[in-house]
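User: For my dataset I need records formatted as: sequence, then structure tokens, nothing else. Please produce one.
Assistant:
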Amino acid sequence: MTGYKVAVVGATGAVGTKMIEMLEQSTLPIENVKLLASARSAGQTRKVFGQEIVIEELVPDSFTDIDIALFSAGGGISKQFAPEAVKRGAVVVDNTSAFRMTEGVPLVVPEVNPEALKEHKGIIANPNCSTIQMMVALEPIRKVAGLNRIIVSTYQAVSGAGAKAMEEMKRETLAYLDGTPVDELNPEILPCGGDKKHYPIAFNALPQIDVFSDEDYTYEEWKMINETHKIMSDDSIKVAATCVRIPVFSGHSESIYIETEKELTTQEIKELLAQAPGVILEDDPSQQIYPQALNAVGKKETFVGRIRRDLDVKNGYHMWVVSDNLLKGAAWNSVQIAETLHEMDLVKVK
């Protein structure tokens, strides 16, 4: 067969840039790549597979002859243009929240629920970055022992809020170290660009990601709850999340507590995770070996460690889970979905 014609929407953004890198490393047979962005970025070039590719302005006809379209340009853009891509025969993998909870749209982590891809009607949703790494770590356990409850606290990197948020953290850090008082740091973005107040992230921890919603949970926390139920096809699992932004550039960390149906030893859990696809077990307290955000940057895998029993609950266990939020949490999972569509013969070359 000849290769696929792939479009990257949002090619100049942080995730779009990583999508291009992941396509270059992918096993997906690719004939050519089209880079799409706003009119402001049109005319710029990016090197793809050693060739300079001119970025084009995103319009509906951009998807003529495209087989696979990877979207990461914001939910509004996805809602407007993903149906246009499908109308022209492309399969869309969308990295925004636009379609995640839409009925009939598969929400997919390839290591967890690839079979859901068989139900796609042109659009596949990439889950929230924090949900993805949690699913990769928990699915091997769920398969063997079942899951009754998940309580997760996230420690999320600033890159998840975009390039401008990373610049804000850098500016605040330098200013604070130079003696600028906290009340003069003048944050403009974090914890959430769309909310009323902004707080410094430098040397701080902000227990708010996205705006607050029902029951005083943020949208980010509701995403983790609802997406877990959809991905695992089980609304009976009790899920609670607290999502926190910390002053780390890249790499999300999570403290996860689970209660299983069947009792396992911690050694059995470690063996399950050591053999699981996409997981690297880093767990040796005697040698101070455990996952760290800094070490996960640039890697596609999800790292799991600090696995231990709860001291009070018989089937309760704790673990620490780390992954690069721009790769497994976004760009790499999207490209993996495309690879899986190819392997399952669910996408065709025009």
